Amino acid sequence: MIVHNQEVITKYFAEHWSPGQGRGLTSHLVIAEKIKDNEWILDVGCGSNPFRSLGKQVIGVDPAFDQADVKSTIEEYVPDRQFDVATCLGSINFGTEEVVAGQIAKIVSCLKPASRIYWRLNPGRQDHDNEECQGITFFPWTFEKLREFADKHNYTQTVEKIDEHPTRPRLYAEWHRAA
Q1: How far is the C-alpha of 82 from the C-alpha of 119, rounded, in Å?
Q2: Are the C-beta atoms of residues 171 and 88 closer than 8 Å to each other?
Q3: How many percent of the chain have pLDDT more than 70?
Q4: Contact call for residues 175 and 116 (beta carbons, < 8 A)
Q5: Short-list 95, 121, 98, CA closest to 173
Q6: What CA–CA distances, in Å, run from 156 to 105, 112, 114, 123, 152?
Q7: In sequence order, which residues have a C-beta less than 8 Å from that of residue 8 and are 6 or more positions away?
Q8: How confident is the model at residue 53, as a pLDDT?
Q9: Rounded distance, CA 66 to CA 104, Å?
Q10: 114-171 pLDDT, tens digit each
Q11: Fewest CB within 10 angstroms: 9, 36, 106, 157, which?
């Protein structure tokens, strides 16, 4: 079983996954309304970089998509600023708890003391419509596990909802941290 192979993940997303705009709670339009015009967004796993098309101040990081401002993994990303907001809409879903913990720590290190993170998480389901994803280990997210990470990084998990989809429901959460 593959535990975390970034090359396999990047290849899957570059060649087999088609970016969408999210639905319901995780629609980029819905989340964009929560972000002020003067705030900077770190969009982790930005795909086609939809926040840019919405006129937001954003740095999109993604290893698989040419539309990213920075084509790299979050672990390799070297920021030149601190951000007000991070969006992780389907991007922090792969590998072991150790891998996920390292990615979250990196994201938090890129944020200002007062900041927010918006999450869409796959609760460990290999439910993509392509057999190529079978070589990818999906982290088994729960709200409780996400809350543990929030507490570790001094965030409050203020929202916990299921983002309904007929065949692929996802977890939606928001983290908030005051200065």
Answers
A1: 19
A2: no
A3: 79
A4: yes
A5: 121
A6: 15, 15, 11, 20, 10
A7: 2, 135, 136
A8: 86
A9: 23
A10: 999 999 998 876 655 666 666 777 899 999 999 999 999 999 999 999 877 666 788 9
A11: 36
Distance CA 44, CA 73 (A): 8
pTM of the predicted structure, to 2 decimals = 0.88
CA distances from residue 142 to 56, 120, 124, 145 in whole angstroms, order as listed: 30, 11, 9, 5
Which amino acid, residue 65?
F
Taken in order 23, 24, 27, 29, the sign of the CA dihedral is positive
Average pLDDT over every residue of 68-94: 95
Answer yes or no: are the C-beta atoms of 96 and 54 closer than 8 Å.
no
Residue 34 region by backbone torsions, left for phi larger than 0, else alpha for psi between -120 and 50, else beta: alpha
DSSP assignment of the chain: --S--HHHHHHHHHHT-------GGG-HHHHHTTS-TT-EEEEET-TT-HHHHTT-EEEEE-SS-TTSSB-S-TTT---SS-EEEEEEES-S-BS-HHHHHHHHHHHHHTEEEEEEEEEEE-BS----SSGGGGGSPBPB--HHHHHHHHHHTT-EEEEEEEE--SS--EEEEEEEE--
